[in-house]
Each structure stands twice: as structure tokens, then as C-alpha cells.
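Can anyone check this?
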Amino acid sequence: MANPQVKTPAPQVAPKPATPQAAPTPQAQPKSSGITQLKNMLIGGTAGTVATSFLYPIETLKTRIQMQSEAKVKGVSAFGTIKNIYKAEGVKSFYMGLGAALARQMLFASFRIGLFFNAADYLKQKKKTGKLSLLESAGASISAGGIAILTVMPFDVVFVRMQAENSLPVAERRGYTGLGNALATICKKEGVSTLWKGSVPAVARAMALNFGMLVPYEQCKALLAPYLGYTYTNYIISSGIAGFGASVCCLPFDNAKVKLQKQVPQGPEKKLPYKNLVDCMAKCVRNEGIFGLWSGFLPFYSFLFPQTVLILLINDFLRIKLGISKIQQRFIPLTQLQLSLIHI
């Protein structure tokens, strides 16, 4: 009788070592549609409004410091200005013009953030790479910033004037009681075109802000992706870098915009102090020095840095929750983060 054959187990093959993987890319996004584009606009406006609500007192402080610098007040400091505002005008003065600021921010952020991500999503889907080049990021951010500010200029003029109201001599105060009253008074006494007064520096500021904020954000996310993946850890670090970039790029134009929008006729001839953006910035350098263009950097950075971080994180969080974009994981472990940072 034949012996049954004994099956011997097949020799095990050692697993091949893992090969290095390419840098991660964002997961496929749903095809852009009118609904998705509308969502991007609403998400951008929501993110901007929430951030401004928390940080508006710092914006008021920044404006006051810029005005003191222009008037050549010596010994100006953020803490001293806070003390003087509180002592002379009370807590409510820190929120002067908040209504106009929120209305402005809802429209402004809807366009400058929403239009950028609409363009970014379209380009990423067209290229099928999930990434934007530096030139594409710059073009999308600058275009979105310019279009956005032209839509909200009336609110911009009103909220700058209302912030500066209590710091003007009593004879020069305009006495606005609110957003509606300010818009009506300006149209009646100065003409509708006044609502777009200072549009050139405002457009320059908006373009610089969007460029300094969104280009570093998108580029940093892509550069950090091989080490951190597309995670909230990556987004937080990238948004922090974007906050600094936005402050440096934007502040010189912000200083000029504020001065042009709040200027009033002076002297017997009722002549305005500044002719245009170039004249304003030139006189600023001549009277205050080159660093006068960055006057009020500390309060401006203290406002714009957390605002940028909040806007970008809220924006990406809502885009993920509404299914517009995807994320690989929420956060990476601390040990993995430490190793990732070592290898950057």
C-alpha cells in the first residue's frame, strides 16, 4: 500500500522591504460645481467674520497707533495707547465701527478667500496634481484680493472713519451714529464716489494681503506634506508662517490706506495732506523714516497673525466638513512630528 504523501510547507519568502513612497497629495476632490463655489464663498465669509469678532479691539489699537505716528507723537506704545483709550473713552471705544467691520469682512472674506479657493480647486482638478505652482497661487490670490476690495470699499471707508472718530478734534468729528447713518451722510454731503475714496491704496493693500497670506499657506502646505502629510498639524504650521508673511507685505499699504481715507482738508486753503498712494508713502518715509511704513507692526501683527491662523484653519475645517476637500488624518503623533521636523 502506497504511503500517503506528506505535504511539506512551502518555504516562506521574506517580505520585501518597503520602498519609499512619493510625497502625499490631497485626496481627490469632488468636481467643482456652482454649489461648491457658493460654499467656498460662504465658508470664506464665515471664517473672516468669526475671526474679526474676536480680534477687533486689536484692529482699533493698530489704527490709533498709526494715527499717533503720523502726528509725530513721541513715546507711542501699544500698552500706553490701550490705557489712554480706556481712560478717555471707555471700553466701548475699542468696538467703535464693529458693525461696519463685520459687514465689510463678510463680503470681503467671501470674495478674497472664496474666489481664491474656487480658482485653486479648478486649477488643481485641471492639472490632476493636487498642487498649485507659485505663479498660479500668486495670480489667484492677487486677482481675488483686488476684486474683493472693490466690492466692499464703502464699508471700508466707513469703518476706518468710525475708528478714527474719537481721536479727531471735536470740530472735525463727523458724528456718525452707525453704519446706515454713515453711508447716507457720506453720499449726501460728499457724493457717492467718496465711498470709493482711496480705492488705489485699498486695492494695493488687498492684493498684498492676499499674496502674503495665501501664497505662503499653499506653498508651505505642499512643502511640508512629505514630512507631515496633509494634516491639521501641517495646516497650523503653514497658517502661522502665512500670518507673518501677510503682516510684512500688507502693513505699508495699510498705513497709506488709513491715512488717505481719514484725511480731512487742512489750513485756509482746505488742502488735503496727500495726493495719492505714492505721495502718501513718500511723505511717510520723509517724515517718519523708512520704518514708518511699518508703524504699528506689533499691534498689526498681533491682530493679523491670529486672524490669519483663525481664518485659514476655520476655512479648511469647514471645507473638509462640507466635503469640498479631504484630510489624511487630523493630527500626527508628537513623536512623529519631532522626527519630521528633524528631517526638514
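Reply from J.R.: I decoded it. DSSP finds ten helices and no strands in the chain.
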